[in-house]
Hints:
The protein is α/β, with parallel strands linked by helices.
Amino acid sequence: xxxxxxxxxxxxxxxxxxxxxxxxxxxxxxxxxxxxxxxxxxxxxxxxxxxxxxxxxxxxxxxxxxxxxxxxxxxxxxxxxxxxxxxxxxxxxxxxxxxxxxxxxxxxxxxxxxxxxxxxxxxxxxxxxxxxxxxxxxxxxxxxxxxxxxxxxxxxxxxxxxxxxxxxxxxxxxxxxxxxxxxxxxxxxxxxxxxxxxxxxxxxxxxxxxxxxxxxxxxxxxxxxxxxxxxxxxxxxxxxxxxxxxxxxxxxxxxxxxxxxxxxxxxxxxxxxxxxxxxxxxxxxxxxxxxxxxxxxxxxxxxxxxxxxxxxxxxxxxxxxxxxxxxxxxxxxxxxxxxxxxxxxxxxxxxxxxxxxxxxxxxxxxxxxxxxxxxxxxxxxxxxxxxxxxxxxxxxxxxxxxxxxxxxxxxxxxxxxxxxxxxxxxxxxxxxxxxxxxxxxxxxxxxxxxxxxxxxxxxxxxxxxxxxxxxxxxxxxxxxxxxxxxxxxxxxxxxxxxxxxxxxxxxxxxxxxxxxxxxxxxxxxxxxxxxxxxxxxxxxxxxxxxxxxxxxxxxxxxxxxxxxxxxx
Length: 568
Ligand code: PEP
Ligand code: MG
């Protein structure tokens, strides 16, 4: 089968399916009431142990914010009133434990769902989670927990949520394959961050595998084989050995500067989603953080993170990077990133809708809380703040004015802040690349977000598989917008970086060097590979190639030109 290569590496292993089927609960009359009550007690006890374990793991792997959810689950499991009602139901209806649990839970869920208070409404999903866990325990259905597996597996799922990926035990999950998603969907980005090989967008794979099947895949090419012949397994083993060898060779680039053959130095930075990603950043020797996607702080929880919670996450990252540059992007929610607790109206085109900076300029309270946390943390390192999804000068000016308000409020409160924080913006909407000459006068840096810039320039939804063949990083229009942005930035004396996936694309890195890009920010796993590429090419030569490439009319010709003329 074929999908989209999402995270490099070859994986050979046994399938574990993330099962999302609904459990069927049938109504049957029972004789032995006590037996059902005992079953309930056992299952509840087991659920409590499971939740305690998950809480510990979440604290260790993801931090306090994400662990909160399990505290709410604990409160439900300890609720005597709820379980008293379940027991009563078993007794008076001669019902099975699972049926009683399901009925009582549903009546509670109904009540909570209809409450005015948003926080209480959210409790409904917690009850649903906890009861489904206990019911699975009653029925003896194995609950898959990606953080405590007892064997190596390759996960096959429709899709993986950020909490699935964040709780994955990297020693046991040796790869994953999903039915939906593209190279820039968040499960793919997380796979690269975790350095787990992955293929996404393999349509229909769930209908073709069962647990414990052997699966082999190439996370670069996107090829997936289920129960393949020995020949293919052997070939994959050889490829895996070759890949492991290559990763070992790259180790020599640790601790070195990123310099081209003709002595031009660039910065290779990392993209992160949470402070926990720092470990990979340091291990892969990034020279800074070019994109900290703060939205993960806001996701998978039931209310907005407080100023204090944000402050401690930003401080941790700044401190961990030890004065190296850290670009923190303000909230970029919307599009494919939702907040369940912020009930936003459904939109026809969420990628073109109420999101990111648009939302922050409208909900200034949310924006200011984040900016306060950022400035309070600014004294712990080399902070740069970046706005996502700017589409006009007006928006940029409004955002900057709010920054000034926050700074003066903090100063009035006697809180110390850094005076050298650079303010930059993403260039991810074509309109801003086109007016980058004017925007460059008003910011300290640009960072080109190619993931969105491709989607908006070519009108190709980055999440839509049916048209994924049209989502093309070699499109001449994209290259021209990049060239324009870099030139305009440099004319005004500001630095220009890139934090979209193109920044780590081995075929395009030479062209970007030729176009004069100053900073390349990518998944930590790509850093050493890119440092190796840069060390083998010269900027002057790449400048000539870049000039040729931007004159080519088709993406196909761009790709062919690079393949034929730039040999690394
Ligand atoms: C981008 O659009 O290129 C980018 C880096 O941001 P995100 O992938 O988070 O939208
Ligand atoms: Mg973007």
